């Protein structure tokens, strides 16, 4: 367990102990702008909640891998697109033009679909995560989810998708507008962590994102994502 200073922040030494790396590695990562920290005078300080979120994104493959994290065993029954997502979960034309408006719109839609029990709670939980670290990763993509898993609030594991043709300033890592907002209802860690990593791999296929932006309707969007999922599976003949 990492020890923290009285003001709730960690020093470079404390963070190095927390990450199980040397202090030189921490200093290089923070100076490169890779590791989230703030310089107070001539000393660096780090907030544990922010660091833990950064590590979470590292593990999921949402951000470039800089520190090796423990590899989790894939559950016997891997979460599939069809098990948590359908065409009715897609909002192809978001009306929101700000981060707050998009979050409220997506939370309201999840409530309308009966995927969550409390819209107000979901808005607050998504905003809490955004305040720790933005979910927009660049390339027009954002992966919204809560900091913690909530079996009581999430009716069943789900994914919803909102699309904005104009794009929204979502504090993306590349500074560009975000167009595709994937919202994950995190009910169980064991299912969702592998699923999030899989989703990122699906979207990294070269033509998927432009095709999703150009798709005519929710059914076409769903079909593109289903095709991207199938392309991740090794050919049956290659297994033999």
Strand content: 15-25%
| Biggest pleated-sheet summary | 5 strands, mixed
Anisotropy-based shape: globular
What is the string of SSEs from the N terminus onward? Answer: EHHEEHHEHHEEEEHHH
Numbering strands along the chain, what is their spatial order in the largest sheet? 4-7-8-6-5
Q: Taking Cα atoms only, what radius of gyration do you get, to the nearest Å?
A: 19 Å
Provide the helix percentage.
40-55%
Task: Describe the overall structure.
There is one protein chain. The protein has 2 domains: 9-60, Arc Repressor Mutant, subunit A (Orthogonal Bundle); 81-232, Mannitol-specific EII, Chain A (3-Layer(aba) Sandwich), CATH 3.40.930.10. Helices cover 41% and strands 16% of the residues. Helix 1 (12-19) packs across helix 2 (23-31). Strands 4-7-8-6-5 form a 5-stranded mixed beta sheet, with helices on both faces. A 3-stranded antiparallel beta sheet has the order 1-3-2. A hairpin with a 2-residue loop joins strand 2 (38-40) and strand 3. It has helices spanning 12-19, 23-31, 48-60, 81-84, 99-112, 119-132, 189-203, 208-214, 218-232, and strands at 9-10, 38-40, 43-47, 90-91, 136-138, 141-144, 158-168, 178-185. The protein is α/β, with parallel strands linked by helices.
